[in-house]
Specification:
By secondary structure, the chain is an alpha/beta fold. It has two domains: about 5-75 and about 375-415, Urease, subunit C, domain 1, CATH 2.30.40.10; about 75-365, Metal-dependent hydrolases (TIM Barrel, Alpha-Beta Barrel), CATH 3.20.20.140. Helices cover about 35% and strands about 25% of the residues. It has helices spanning about 50-55, 90-95, 100-105, 110-120, 125-140, 155-170, 195-215, 230-240, 260-265, 280-285, 295-300, 310-315, 335-345, 350-355, 360-365, 390-395, and strands spanning about 5-20, 30-40, 40-50, 55-65, 70-75, 75-80, 145-150, 175-185, 220-225, 245-250, 270-275, 290-295, 320, 380-385, 400-405, 410-415. The strands form two sheets. Strands 1, 2, 3, 4, 5, 14, 15 and 16 form an eight-stranded mixed beta sheet that branches. β8 (about 175-185), α7 (about 195-215) and β9 (about 220-225) form a beta-alpha-beta unit. α8 packs parallel to α9 (about 260-265), α9 (about 260-265) packs parallel to α10 (about 280-285) and α13 packs across α14. The chain binds N-(iminomethyl)-L-glutamic acid (NIG) and fe (iii) ion. N-(iminomethyl)-L-glutamic acid binds near residues 111, 115, 253, 298 and 328.
Length: about 425
């Protein structure tokens, strides 16, 4: 007889468990009447509740929790956010409501540069507590892993400071944080009209210091008409890869600048936004390892056309969903809303949207063996939902039914 698995935490009586195993039921690994067992913060067993004691050794010290017949999913993995900024930008939101366009506002010195001025002027305390507050709202929406970009400093001192703050916030919250250096978010005032010089400054002076600091795993660049060209993005990403960074790119958000091709040709882990991706590049990305990360909240917030989710999925692309949380183009921290938008506006099935918001988000952060699934070996980061049909997560618009959130099997939020 096989030795029983020692466990220190079990979640029993799960009405519907979504393991996100793509080989299993509905490609989301749907188990009814199931249980989940954990040792040392990692899942060690999942299966039918009636088999729990056959497979696992429960000790007097084992913590036993009931999901009361409810739905349990992996915590969301929000693989694209910008929560490090000095102040919010309600005035620009109101200007857009009155008819102004996001790019007109940016061209007039608002937009990202508006946040840069406020971020440079903000104290460490303000940046720390703002980021922490946004991360705690994300947690209440079921997000347990978050990618965090710098990019509102655009000079060495502020970018460095923002990444240190991200690291300090990470140590003070239960979620897992993945930091990204985004010095190439915009051309700062000091380099106005000289984007090539700024790219050289990033490559020669800033990137090496950020590498030495050791906090950021990824770099990202905004490849967009009026910001950085395809050639500048290629140059920056190639140099960054040589310096040991992993790559991401804001691609084809407003205009098709061939950004998705830059991602594929530089081996970027993800190309994000893609509202304006060409049909040709849909095929290209579908035949590559690069993940297409869609941010439908930004399309909603800026009144732009939604990204072509169905086309990407039908072409066979790996698609992730994220919020793009930021003070300008999407002040939204809710992954359940992204799941709804993917279904209602981008042609996803409910199952595809949930995979995109969990397992594929994890893959877009290089965490495909650790996050986004509830299978043996994965971190026990999960959400207990106040519902007994997993489709409610997409269906209940604007008010997530989160009952409790666990990180490494520790309850870190409950309603
Ligand atoms: O992802 N596209 C570039 N960056 C952000 C917008 C940032 C801002 O407006 O502050 C985005 O949409
Ligand atoms: Fe973004």
């Amino acid at each position: 007889m096989q030795a029983k698995i020692p466990v220190d935490f079990v979640l029993r009586n799960i009405g519907q468990l979504l393991t996100m195993d793509p080989e299993d039921s509905l490609k989301i690994g749907l188990w009814e009447n199931s249980a989940l067992a954990v040792s040392d913060g990692r899942v060690v067993w999942v299966g039918h509740d009636s088999l729990l004691e056959v497979a696992c050794a429960l000790r007097p010290s084992t913590k036993i929790q009931s999901a009361r017949g409810n739905v349990v999913t992996p915590g969301f993995v929000d693989s694209h956010t910008h929560p490090l900024f000095g102040a919010t930008r309600e005035e620009e939101f109101a200007q857009r409501a009155a008819g102004a366009d996001y790019q007109e506002i940016a061209a007039a010195g608002g937009g990202i540069l508006n946040s840069v001025r406020k971020t440079r002027a903000a104290s460490n305390e303000v940046l720390f507590y703002n980021m922490k507050h946004h991360l705690s709202t994300m947690l209440s929406n079921g997000t347990t892993t978050v990618e965090v970009k710098s990019g509102y400093g655009l000079d060495l001192a502020t970018e460095y400071r923002c990444l240190e703050i991200a690291d300090a916030v990470a140590a003070s919250i239960p979620q897992t944080i993945v930091p990204t250096f985004m010095g190439a978010h915009e051309v700062p005032e000091e380099f106005k009209g000289r984007p090539d010089d700024y790219i050289d400054y990033l490559i020669d002076e800033v990137n090496p210091k950020i590498k030495e600091q050791g906090i950021a795993e990824f770099v990202d660049i905004f490849c967009e008409k009026g910001v950085f060209t395809k050639q500048q993005a290629l140059k920056y990403l190639k140099a960054s890869a040589e310096q040991g960074f992993l790559l991401k790119i804001h691609a084809d958000e407003f205009f098709d600048t061939d950004g998705a091709a830059v991602a594929v040709n530089t081996g970027a882990i993800s190309a994000d936004h893609l509202l304006s991706i060409s049909d040709e590049n849909i095929k290209l990305i579908a035949n590559s390892k690069t993940i297409a990360t869609l941010l439908p909240g930004t399309a909603l917030f800026l009144k732009k056309p939604f990204p072509p989710g169905r086309k990407l999925l039908d072409a066979g692309a790996s698609v992730a969903l994220a919020t793009d949380f930021n003070p300008g183009s999407c002040f939204c921290d809710s992954m359940p809303l992204m799941v709804n938008l993917a279904v209602c506006q981008c042609g996803f099935t409910v199952e595809e949207a949930l995979v995109a918001a969990t397992a594929n988000g994890a893959a877009a952060l290089g965490l495909d063996k650790r996050k986004g699934k509830l299978l043996p070996g994965f971190d026990a980061d999960f959400v207990i939902w106040n519902c007994n049909d997993f489709r409610t997560i997409a269906y209940h618009l604007g008010n997530p039914d989160v009952a409790a959130v666990y990180c490494a099997a520790r309850k870190v939020y409950s309603t």
